[in-house]
């Protein structure tokens, strides 16, 4: 049950894109929003809080006026980013094959 919950959250629409965005280094909130296309402010806040709670992201508040907040991956977050990048490479390597299977399936289903 706990594994299923965590896999579900890690496999949601926004977690891996946020983690991969942070894999190059720390970013401020709006920088992450610009990199992760289509994410709303509310979803980014939720995603970052969940990643921080799970120990994959750190949040650093700099004592400036106004305060600047940076997010960065922990060692565990970096290991997740590597797995996310591997998964993305797998998808790219098999995308044409998957498209072919989908087209054949759709043709067969439409014909029936």
Task: Describe, in plain words, how this protein is organized in 3D.
- The chain is α+β, with helices and mostly antiparallel strands and 112 residues long.
- It has one domain (2-111): Arc Repressor Mutant, subunit A.
- The protein contains 5 helices and 3 strands.
- The chain has helices at 2-10, 15-22, 29-35, 41-53, 75-111; strands spanning 27-28, 57-62, 68-73.
- It has a 3-stranded antiparallel beta sheet with strand order 1-3-2.
- Strand 2 (57-62) and strand 3 (68-73) form a beta hairpin.
- The N and C termini lie far apart (39 Å).
- GO terms for molecular function: DNA binding.
- InterPro entries: HTH_HxlR (IPR002577), WH-like_DNA-bd_sf (IPR036388), WH_DNA-bd_sf (IPR036390).
- This is DNA-binding HxlR family transcriptional regulator.
- Residues 1-99 form the HTH hxlR-type domain.
- Keywords: DNA-binding, Transcription, Transcription regulation.
Q: Tell me the CATH architecture.
A: Orthogonal Bundle
Q: What is the rounded distance between the termini?
A: 39 Å
Structural class: alpha+beta
| Widest beta sheet: strand line-up | 1-3-2
Low-pLDDT residue intervals, each spanning 5 or more residues:
none
Order of helices and strands: HHEHHEEH
Oligomer kind? single chain
Looking at CATH, the homologous superfamily is: Winged helix-like DNA-binding domain superfamily/Winged helix DNA-binding domain
Say how many strands there are: 3
The fraction of residues in strands falls at 5-15%
CATH fold-level assignment: Arc Repressor Mutant, subunit A
Shape: elongated
Q: What would you report as the Rg, rounded to the nearest angstrom? A: 18 Å
The percent range for helix content is 55-70%
The CATH class is identified as Mainly Alpha
Instruction: State the major sheet.
Output: 3 strands, antiparallel
Domain HTH hxlR-type: 1-99
Keywords: DNA-binding, Transcription, Transcription regulation
InterPro entries: HTH_HxlR, WH-like_DNA-bd_sf, WH_DNA-bd_sf
Protein name: DNA-binding HxlR family transcriptional regulator
């Amino acid at each position: 049950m706990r594994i299923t919950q965590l896999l579900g959250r890690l496999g949601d629409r926004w977690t891996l894109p946020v983690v991969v965005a942070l894999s190059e280094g720390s970013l401020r909130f709006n920088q992450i929003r610009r990199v992760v296309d289509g994410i709303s402010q509310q979803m980014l806040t939720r995603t970052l809080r969940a990643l921080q709670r799970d120990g994959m992201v750190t949040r650093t508040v700099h004592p400036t006026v106004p305060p600047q907040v940076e997010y960065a991956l922990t060692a565990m977050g970096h290991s997740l980013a590597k797995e996310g990048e591997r998964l993305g490479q797998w998808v790219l390597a098999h995308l044409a094959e998957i498209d072919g299977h989908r087209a054949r399936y759709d043709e067969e289903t439409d014909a029936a």
